[in-house]
Amino acid sequence: MSTTTPDFPSTGSPRIAVIGGGIGGVAAAAFLHRAGLDVTVYEQAPQLGEVGAGLVVSPNAVRMIRRLGHFDTFLAKAVPLEVGWEFRRWQNGAILSAEQLTDNCEALYGERSYVAHRADVLDAVRAAVPAELIRLGMRCTGIEPHADGARLHFGDGSVVDADVVIGADGVHSVIRGAITTPAPAPAEYSGMCAFRALVPAADAPSFARRPVQTLWIGPDHHLVHYPISGGKAVNIVAFAPAGDFTDESWSATGTVAELLAEFDGWDPRLTDLITAAGTPGRWALLDRAPLEKWSRGRVTLLGDAAHPMFPFFAQGAAQAIEDGAALAQCLAADTGDPDRALRTYEEIRLPRTTRVQQLSRGRKEINHLPDGPEQITRDAGLARQDPLVASGWLYGYDAELAAREAYVR
To answer: Which residue among the candidates 114, 226, 345, 395 is catalytic per the annotation?
Structure first.
């Protein structure tokens, strides 16, 4: 598996505008800057930051983060997982399966798996982007694509012309709405909502402080927890029927009482953990079908703007980082023809992200089976599985290598 930095062409760079300063957008800028390309990030917030809490950083993402040259920043707060996929029964916490990751993950894929706060991952990729390349307080309100690029309009009245535009502006993307023709099908109500919360490590039960990704599964619900922020906090993300709750905003909140009510009757160790949580965020999960195209001329999408996915496969941020790495390779290899570079990028990335989207959809049904014959069969299957080996297609993937090989063929 190649880890060397490729030799990029010295030809003049197109002016590249990245709309959105989340993990995907900043990662794209980092890889583009590393390739010697002219890139500027436009972020609507007055400062960079990530809403939300924890995420799993799997080997396919770790591999890319390491290449940006500031891996120590990532390691300072990321927690290396010793055990993953520790599935527990909802009623009594019985362990249905667990995968030892220490040594095994690195032996298979050359990298470990980590858990981290989203903001810490953003800091690690931002360290590879000079501050002057990030413009804050720039809310994109519209885009006018044309043959040689696009004109961008911002909320402060300013206008920017770019040769290439990358829409990394999330699930409610302004850029996506302007370039996908015909318009994509509207999001469908999934009937599920998610809660996220943090528990200070000092208040968390000892079992939750272990460097383990634990998944409690039961009828219509599941809950995941693991330590983040160098072990100073425990991240909780839980999934439950949404009822009449339909707010998709990551800034919406619920209450600890609401979260506890969803897990009433579950193992007391789990409810003790929930009781110690701070105010949880709460958002509805809306289902969006994969897009058939991401690009129009010299405008393209990445991350949630291109392929929003349920969080059940823990790959949203990882796929956005892969997008940024592959896109930079394509644009660096094809500076004279950005249209072709974006087509190649889409051809490389769309099949893979579509597969991850579809697998993420399927996990909801599997995790939430009611007690009965299907649940018993599922639990027996979990005990037989080796998810680390089965994930080879996912964790062994090298986004930069895949893009380079597309130009060799």
So the answer is: 226
189 is catalytic: no
- Residue 35: which of 408, 330, 314 has the closest Cα? 330
- Sign for the CA dihedral angle at 154, 168, 77, 401 comes to negative
- Kindly report, residue by residue over 232-260, the tens digit of the pLDDT: 999 999 999 988 776 766 677 889 999 99
Nearest to 166 by CA among 8, 29, 52: 29
Q: How is 230-289 classified by DSSP, letter by letter?
A: GGTEEEEEEEEE-TT-----TT-B--HHHHHHHTTTS-HHHHHHHHT--SPEEEEEEE-P
CB-count burial class (<10 Å; 0-12, 13-18, 19+) for 383: exposed
Residue 132 is given by DSSP the state G
Q: How far apart are CA 43 and CA 15, in angstroms?
A: 17
- The residue among 139, 178, 194 whose CA lies nearest residue 309 is 194
- From residue 340, give the alpha-carbon distance in Å to each of 176, 182, 277, 332, 408: 19, 21, 49, 12, 15
Is the whole-model pTM more than 0.85? yes
Cα 353 from chain centroid?
11
- Cis geometry, peptide bond prior to residue 338 (ω within 30 degrees of 0): no
Question: Closest by alpha carbon to 14, among 319, 330, 350, 345?
Answer: 330
CA 150 to CA 159: how far, in whole Å?
10
Q: Which residue has the tokens 């660096």?
A: 332
Which segments of 33-118 are extended strands (E)?
Answer: 38-43, 54-57, 79-80, 83-89, 95-100, 114-117
Tens-place pLDDT, residues 5-51: 344 444 478 999 999 999 999 999 999 999 999 999 999 999 887 66
